[in-house]
Amino acid sequence: MHIEVLVLFCALTFKTVSLTMISKSVVLDKKTDFFWKYNITNYVGKISYNKEAILFDSYEGRAEVFGRNFSLVLKNVKHSDSGDYTAVVVGEQEQSIAEYKVIVQDPVSRAELTVDHLSSSSDSCNLTVTCSTVEFNISSIFRCDAQNCLQVEEKSLNVSKYFSSLIVYLQHDTIFCNHSNKVSWRANKKVIKLYCERKLGKTISKLSPHQMFVLSVGLIIMVIAVISVHLMEKKKKKNKPF
Ligand SMILES: *[C@@H]1O[C@H](CO)[C@@H](O)[C@H](O)[C@H]1NC(C)=O
Ligand SMILES: *[C@@H]1O[C@H](CO)[C@@H](O)[C@H](O)[C@H]1NC(C)=O
Ligand SMILES: *[C@@H]1O[C@H](CO)[C@@H](O)[C@H](O)[C@H]1NC(C)=O
Ligand SMILES: *[C@@H]1O[C@H](CO)[C@@H](O)[C@H](O)[C@H]1NC(C)=O
Ligand SMILES: *[C@@H]1O[C@H](CO)[C@@H](O)[C@H](O)[C@H]1NC(C)=O
Ligand SMILES: *[C@@H]1O[C@H](CO)[C@@H](O)[C@H](O)[C@H]1NC(C)=O
């Protein structure tokens, strides 16, 4: 029998995690019971054919099983709750019908973004930044000319041991440093202009396409208005009775 293994990531701060029988109808009779198992050898709870749900001692007060829908809810999850949860039907034989791999993660630590090196001339600007967390850091270089800024060295770091990743990237002339895992992310940013524009002077403050558009539309409306007024004046003159 094919059973689907679902991987659930849950944050320590989320507190509860719900394991549900999805699209499975479980039919029990006098000779079969339903169990939630943890890591092969431990039993969490049991549901009997009359839908009576029972938790075993070590889960008393920190979990719930529901006889009606066969779901299991773990409360106040801890790192030690990580592992494999299996739903089994036990009669003459034991049959697994669902499996969940639960991974409890801490929310990520804060990511710091610092500018380490800045060199700028009249027409370009080079910025070296370091994006760091408690566990690791990466540095990245950004270059701006009068028109654009771009990331010269693209960096990202995946550390599987912590199940988290650190990435530095450029978006709308802002540098982002993002530390994330499956349950949370924390980002920090720096606006490049604060470092580079001062030196590059006014050349960088060109009109954006949007500003250009607004200005053009404004001009066109003004021209049309002037022409209309002019034409109306002309018409008025023509229509004047002698
Ligand atoms: C299962 O039943 C319990 C109690 O009726 C309910 O609180 C819970 O939301 C149900 N779970 C699902 C996934 O339907
Ligand atoms: C349960 O299994 C997981 C994954 O195999 C393991 O990391 C964890 O230590 C086990 N927990 C217990 C209490 O056996
Ligand atoms: C920035 O780096 C590029 C390539 O190394 C170099 O050509 C340029 O002169 C640098 N600009 C400044 C202002 O240091
Ligand atoms: C970055 O990590 C290296 C080792 O990987 C360490 O030597 C260096 O001090 C770290 N730098 C910062 C700014 O944390
Ligand atoms: C890091 O992981 C993400 C998603 O898991 C992937 O898209 C990215 O390419 C990885 N980066 C590196 C440098 O391995
Ligand atoms: C940080 O990374 C996470 C996970 O990839 C993503 O959901 C989030 O939007 C990112 N935040 C920023 C500010 O880029």
Automatic annotation (TrEMBL):
Transmembrane segments: 212-232
Compartment list: Membrane
Highest taxon above the source species: Eukaryota
This protein's UniProt keywords: Glycoprotein, Membrane, Signal, Transmembrane, Transmembrane helix
Principal subcellular localization: membrane
Signal peptide segment: 1-18
GO cellular component term, pick one: membrane
Name under which the protein is recorded: Immunoglobulin subtype domain-containing protein
Organism: Neolamprologus brichardi
